[in-house]
From TrEMBL, chain A:
This is Mitochondrial ribosomal protein S30. One of its GO terms (cellular component) is mitochondrial large ribosomal subunit. Coiled coil: none annotated. GO terms for molecular function: structural constituent of ribosome. Pfam families: PDCD9. It is found in: Mitochondrion. It comes from the Eukaryota. InterPro entries: Ribosomal_mL37/mL65, Ribosomal_mL65. Keywords: Mitochondrion, Ribonucleoprotein, Ribosomal protein. The keyword DNA-binding does not apply. It comes from Chelydra serpentina (Snapping turtle). One of its GO terms (biological process) is translation.
UniProtKB/TrEMBL annotation, chain B:
This is 39S ribosomal protein L37, mitochondrial. GO terms for cellular component: mitochondrion. It comes from the Eukaryota. PANTHER family: LARGE RIBOSOMAL SUBUNIT PROTEIN ML37 (PTHR15889:SF2), MITOCHONDRIAL RIBOSOMAL PROTEIN L37 (PTHR15889). InterPro entries: mtLSU_mL37. Residues 16-58 are annotated as: Disordered.
């Protein structure tokens, strides 16, 4: 704004030069550009400081430096737990992450046919062996310690199942042959969404973005060096709406803390396997089916699975996007896709997530029609009685690994 | 700032309340005694009949020397006074058995109590003499290096991964550098991750050798094996490491001639140290054999044991020698339990020896071991002995540089892995492929 004003003043002063040819370069401005103050307590100063910050992040020499600058300022933020006991947490998490939840699985791509196709009976026998080993053949303590039942049998079963299935499917899927398997990795993401007025402290009355942080620890995670193909195009208009909740996140309940703003997919930026494939989560002991049924919260069983899927996958895909250099002011140019399988050892639910936009702040979201999409199934039983194991959805279990 | 662990000196000349005063002031620290001067008394002892010096005399308490003399205590007063002795009061008895406050039965009253002591080796046993002690306890002969059968698997070019060096170095960097947002991860986090990554790399060979998919890893399982060795009962018990089970057993690595040649080998003893030193002595025990899995398990044969030594603190961590001894004891324990279940409890020379491999690591240094159980007759030190091949102290890399070394504003030493040795992973992979790979030397052994 200031520079054109200076130009206009110079032009008005020398109107005689309008009809002459301009052979030389325009003369340098006599005065420095008039801009808003940097340190004043005004909206224009705040805007200028923000612009300076965005410019610094845009011009960062490396991605690690970009992440460091993005999360440099520490303020109180809401800590979002993917595995939560809050009621109807999935709708809240959809609003925090601008996600549309579509029941069912995404439209399937071309299935691999021919000699490379995996043999389902072989995979089924591997899964049965893993199940039998953990449940029956391996001698374990009769009764696990309090609240450690999930890590006693279902945890080792899932670990064994994933490692043997990924090894067996490596021949038919070259991407899995070059993948990296992480056990209990850290996945973190920090983002801002919406605005609020600061109600307490020396910054009372100022308008601040609402900050969130997810610190997740999936049981197993598969990372690959090449990105998974998208399910739907980037600007696909999803039939569904992002829920709008007109309450403060404190009502969920969600609590604020101030600590390092970490963004991590499970390994540092230098790792060649920087794209995600599948995560496997285990429902903890306090959120088990029996406990929810005893507390008359039978409808919340699906909600826990959905909230876990949406939050974990959003954090993972968004962190992957940030590892490629995108952030809220530089939105993604290609969709980031990941999958998750969430189970409590007996009931499995499958989720697919496509990240179409990282621009969730108020300023970046003004003209942003894109929404993130999460497809999810209901949880269903993988196997019946002990003696007769049938795995009707083994095909779906293997589909994420293909 | 690191906390001071040595006692700070007081100001010069200051007297401490608890320290001696007078001519011995300042003598607070335990000064190590100089060796005694060499006199006829110190070299040969006092002559018979001469009185002993005061410090060598037997000191009995005063109550024994003067009978009838008792300490005056404040028990009668029923309150404390500082100038009277503390009374020894009888232990309070509840009068009835409260299960929540009961000390439990005494060892002698337990049903499994036996007079004869048993020596147990568990996962925290650090043996003094290391591998030599384990060799004597398990009646084994040591052979340096890996067996030629395994070495021939290394030499086959078909048994290598694609881009092996790059993938292994990625795995090392992942475990040592990339796994955490901090600069340097702790050993407790990077050591198991390195092993899991290497195992994941080995599992990708299942596309070439389909029989590799017929294996299952078992974590947190407990093994139990008992045997008698020259009038001592020995046991191996408890959780040890990660076990790779296979459908088919490993074929014997040594030929029949080598097995018969071990009869002439003499086991090394280390008198005056007893071979059962550092093993836990128990009087309440049960001699049983348990592989950790029930009957009918589809992967009945133990293939390889993986040991991860990931204690952060150096005094707690096993030294390489003690780690090798632990690997040997548990490989033997697994092999013996399997042999007793397959061939019965009678001690005899096995017609089909049981082979169990073992790999131990502390994140950088790898120990490889192949153990062959030839006999369950372990009571005497003569006869056919078991065999073990140990390849010790294989470095996978020399060190990791986390920060670049900058000299005069120029990066002279970039961050990364220094001194990477590809042979270590080749041996790791060869031990994994052993049993699934058909090689030319196999037909010559049997």
């Amino acid at each position: 704004m200031a520079a054109p004003r200076g130009w206009r003043l110079a032009g008005q002063g020398c109107c005689r030069l309008l009809h002459t040819e301009r052979s030389a370069a325009p003369p340098p401005p006599l005065y420095p550009p008039v801009v808003a103050s940097h340190t004043a307590k005004s909206k224009s100063a705040k805007r200028r400081r923000l612009e300076y910050f965005y410019q610094q992040v845009h011009e960062a020499p490396s991605i690690a430096e970009k992440l460091r600058l993005y999360g440099r300022l520490q303020r109180l933020k809401y800590v979002v737990y993917p595995q939560t006991f809050s009621l109807n947490a999935d709708r809240w998490y959809q609003s925090f992450t601008k996600t549309v939840f579509v029941p069912g699985l995404p439209p399937a791509g071309a299935q691999p046919a021919g000699p490379g196709a995996p043999d389902l009976s072989e995979l089924r026998s591997l899964a049965c062996d893993a199940l039998l080993q953990e449940h029956f053949y391996q001698r374990k303590r009769e009764r696990p310690f309090l609240y450690r039942e999930q890590q006693h049998v279902p945890g080792p079963f899932l670990t064994q199942l994933v490692s043997s299935l990924s090894a067996a499917l490596g021949s038919s899927n070259p991407l899995l042959a070059t993948s990296c398997l992480d056990l209990k990795p850290q996945v973190n993401f920090y983002w801002e969404r919406g605005e609020t007025v600061v109600c307490r402290g020396y910054r009372t009355g100022r308008i601040d973005p609402v900050r969130f942080q997810i610190d997740d620890e999936p049981l197993i995670q598969i990372r690959v060096p090449k990105q998974l193909p998208e399910f739907v195009p980037l600007d696909y208009s999803v039939p569904g709406e992002v829920p709008v909740i007109n309450h403060k996140p404190d009502k969920l309940p969600l609590f604020k803390r101030q600590y390092d703003n970490k963004i991590f997919i499970g390994s540092k930026v230098a790792d060649p396997c920087s794209y995600g494939h599948t995560q496997f989560h285990l429902i903890p002991d306090k959120l088990k089916r029996e406990r929810l049924l005893k507390a008359n919260l039978a409808d919340q069983i699906e909600v826990t699975y959905r909230a876990n899927g949406i939050a974990s996958l959003f954090a993972w895909t968004a962190a992957q996007a940030m590892y490629q250099g995108f952030w809220c002011e530089a939105d993604v140019t290609r969709p980031f896709v990941s999958q998750a399988v969430i189970s409590d050892g007996k009931y499995f639910a499958f989720f697919c997530y496509q990240l179409n936009t990282l621009a969730l702040t108020v300023k970046a979201d003004q003209n942003n029609p894109r929404k993130n999409i999460c497809w999810g199934t209901e949880n269903f039983e993988e196997y019946g009685t002990r003696n007769h194991f049938f795995l009707p959805s083994l095909r779906i279990l293997c589909a994420p690994l293909l | 700032m690191a906390g001071l662990w040595w006692p700070a000196r007081p100001a010069a000349g200051a007297l401490r309340a608890w320290a001696p005063r007078g001519p011995h002031r300042g003598k607070t620290a335990q000064v190590p005694r100089r060796p005694l001067p060499r006199t006829p008394w110190t070299t040969r002892g006092p002559p018979p009949g001469a009185p002993l010096p005061r410090s060598w005399q037997d000191k009995r308490p005063v109550q024994e020397q003067i009978p009838g003399l008792e300490q005056v205590t404040y028990a009668g007063k029923q309150y404390f006074v500082p100038w009277l002795a503390r009374p020894r009061l009888p232990r309070w008895e509840r009068g009835w058995h409260d299960p929540r406050h009961s000390p439990g039965p005494r060892y002698e009253a337990m049903p499994l109590y036996k007079e004869r002591v048993c020596y147990v080796c568990h996962q925290r046993t650090k043996m003094l003499e290391g591998v030599r002690q384990a060799l004597w306890l398990t009646k084994t002969k040591l052979m340096e290096g890996l067996p030629p059968k395994v070495l021939s698997i290394i030499d086959e070019p078909a048994n290598q991964l694609e881009n092996e060096d790059e993938r292994v170095q990625n795995a090392i960097s992942h475990a040592r550098v990339w796994i955490t947002t901090e600069l340097i991860p702790k050993r407790e986090s990077y050591c198991p991750v390195l092993l899991e990554d290497l195992l994941h790399l080995c599992r990708t060979m299942a596309s070439k050798y389909p029989s590799l998919s017929k294996r299952m890893l078992a974590r947190d399982y407990k093994v139990a094996a008992a045997w008698e060795r020259e009038s001592s009962i020995l046991q191996v018990r408890g959780m040890n490491g990660i076990l790779l089970n296979a459908i088919n057993p490993l074929l014997p690595v040594a030929s029949k001639d080598e097995i018969l040649a071990t009869e002439n080998h003499v086991l090394e003893t280390f008198h005056p140290i007893s071979p059962t030193i550092d093993l836990q002595e128990v009087n309440v025990y049960e001699e049983r054999h348990d592989t950790g899995f029930r009957e009918g398990y589809p992967y009945p044969h133990p293939h390889t044991l993986y040991f991860v030594e990931s204690a952060n603190v150096r005094p707690v961590r096993f030294r390489p020698e003690q780690l090798r001894a632990k690997m040997l004891m548990f490989a033997f324990g697994n092999a013996l339990a399997k042999a007793k279940i397959l061939y019965g409890d009678d001690p005899k020379v096995l017609e089909h020896p049981v082979v169990v491999q073992s790999i131990g690591t502390e994140g950088r240094i790898f120990q490889f071991m192949v153990f062959q159980l030839n006999t369950t007759d372990l009571a005497s030190s003569d006869g056919v002995k078991n065999l073990v091949w140990i390849d010790s102290d294989q470095y996978m890399y020399d060190y990791i540089r986390y920060l670049p070394g900058i000299r005069k504003k120029v990066v002279k030493f970039p961050p990364g892995i220094y001194g990477y040795r590809p042979d270590t992973f080749k041996k790791f992979l060869a031990l994994y492929l052993h049993g699934a790979v058909q090689d030319s030397t196999q037909t010559q052994i049997l």
